[in-house]
Design brief:
This protein is an alpha/beta fold. The longest helix is centred in the middle third of the chain and has 32 residues, at about 275-305. The radius of gyration is 31 Å and the shape is elongated. Helix 2 packs antiparallel against helix 6 (about 195-215), helix 3 (about 95-125) packs antiparallel against helix 5 and helix 5 (about 180-190) runs antiparallel to helix 6. The chain folds into two domains: about 1-65 and about 95-275, no CATH class; about 315-440, no CATH class. It has helices at about 1-25, 30-45, 95-125, 160-175, 180-190, 195-215, 225-230, 250-260, 275-305, 310-315, 340-360, 400-410; strands at about 80, 85-90, 125-130, 135-140, 145-150, 150-155, 245, 375-385, 390-395, 420, 425, 430-440.
Length: about 450
């Protein structure tokens, strides 16, 4: 999960850097709007995509692989079956990163609902009148000017000469459905409240919305008058992140600069083609990143699969033979997984072992020990014998107490149906990673 979040943030940062350096000064406002909506979605989706063809696209000399750590030297020549990692945490601790994550989401969701409440209150209290498909809400004793979907909020202190200009501006926001864009980022702010880049995305979208509305309004009004309108007074603005305010002091200078800017040349549209190599590069990274990590646990298995006879022939020549999981004809079967297909038996066994370890592992270990904190990784290797018993259990961890606990728990696994090769029972080796989170 943490790796996925870091990838997402890195991709968003890269997308924003490209936007700020190459795109935000262009007058292709609709293209920029698409870019600001597409790239955050892409940053969430790309880390989840693994394209098989990309895994071997980089030459091996450019891929750095760390040397393998052999936990069981006696079985170095035999490929073990790597079971899914079992994640444990100290259940007696109140604080955890998941708890903090959910608290942050709850707080931001509450803040969002409070903003909605304020808007609804303004609608109820204000004087309302219909204009085509718009509802104009007049706010008493105020000079606010903002919109939210079909509602335009205008203070009664706005001067008559500015009223029509502001109304035309807010009508553009309604027609272009700009409020939907901002609500999209509000959802992202709730789910990813810890990510500052989401807030940066929303701020850039607000600025872009003003550029779009200004550009369309000045086509029907005198530019000089419109500039004077912007400069004449900075109205009060409600600090609500998903409304479209007409006057916002930090944006006025940018809006005037963009209004006076010469329209971008069509050839500059080629800049948006940068999305293609960026997305391709990110897919290459995520696919190869996954491929390299998987290769560390599957190289030996692949070598055996390329020459399966090497393992099969041992069944006829050796009494105490170990057959790799990748080529054994019938893998061991966990109790309760007998009445399903062979493929489902593998999944069932992984699930049962993970559940068993999670139930029996003493998660209070290390509690109160200042020398044992944070994330603890325990690597366990064991074998299922020809009689279905758990044998040869060994573990490695930073702390001896976790090694001993892992050996104890894995040794308690129930007797299973042994693996079979050419009609004979054989020994099948396994590897089980356990990650134990010591929480403060």
């Amino acid at each position: 999960m943490l790796h996925y979040i870091l990838q997402t943030i890195a991709f968003q940062l890269f997308f924003l850097m490209v936007y700020d350096l190459f795109l935000k000064r262009e007058t292709f406002f609709n293209w920029n709007r698409f870019y600001l909506l597409f790239t955050p979605i892409a940053s969430f989706v790309l880390p989840l995509i693994q394209i098989e063809a990309f895994k071997n696209i980089l030459p091996q000399q450019y891929v750095v692989q760390l040397p393998a750590v052999i936990l069981n030297p006696d079985a170095a020549a035999v490929q073990t079956q790597l079971l899914p990692t079992v994640y444990l945490k100290n259940s007696s601790s109140f604080w955890s990163w998941e708890f903090i994550l959910y608290v942050g989401m709850s707080v931001t969701a509450f803040m969002f609902l409070f903003k909605i409440y304020k808007l609804i209150g303004a609608i109820i209290i204000g004087d309302k009148q219909k204009l085509n498909k718009l509802t104009i809400v007049t706010i008493k004793n105020s000079s606010v000017a903002f919109s939210f979907f079909n509602y335009v909020f205008l203070g009664d202190a706005i001067s008559p000469e500015n009223y029509n200009t502001i109304l035309a501006h807010e009508c553009v926001h309604k027609t272009e459905k700009h409020s939907a864009d901002l609500l999209f980022f509000e959802v992202l702010r709730i789910l990813f409240w810890f990510n500052p880049l989401v807030y940066m995305y929303q701020n850039r979208m607000v600025t872009l919305h003003e550029y779009i509305a200004d550009a369309l309004v000045v086509k029907q009004q005198d530019k000089v008058t419109y500039y004077q309108n912007l400069l004449s007074q900075v109205f009060d603005v409600n600090h609500i992140s998903f409304i479209n305010p007409f006057f916002k002091q930090s944006l006025i200078k940018k809006r005037i600069i963009m209004l006076t800017k010469t329209k971008s040349k069509q050839i500059h549209l080629a800049k948006y083609a940068l999305l293609i190599p960026m997305v391709f590069g990110m897919l290459l990274y995520t696919s190869c990143d996954k491929g390299v990590s998987e290769s560390k646990t599957s190289d030996a298995e692949n070598s055996i699969e390329n020459n399966p006879k090497a393992a099969v022939e041992k069944v006829d020549s050796e009494e105490e033979v170990e057959v790799p999981y990748s080529v054994v004809e019938q893998p061991p079967v966990f109790p309760g997984c007998e009445d399903v297909s062979a493929e489902e038996q593998k999944k069932c066994m992984s699930t049962k072992i993970s559940k068993f370890v999670g139930t029996h592992f003493n998660t209070d270990l290390g509690k109160g020990d200042e020398n044992i904190t944070g994330r603890q990784r325990i690597n366990v290797v064991f074998k299922i014998s020809k009689t279905g018993d758990i044998v040869g259990v060994k573990a490695r961890a930073k702390s001896e107490i976790f090694q001993n606990e892992a050996v104890r728990v894995v040794s308690l696994l129930p007797k299973m149906q042994p693996g079979m090769q050419k009609g004979k029972a054989v020994i099948v080796p396994y590897s089980l990673p356990i990650v134990f989170q010591i929480l403060e």
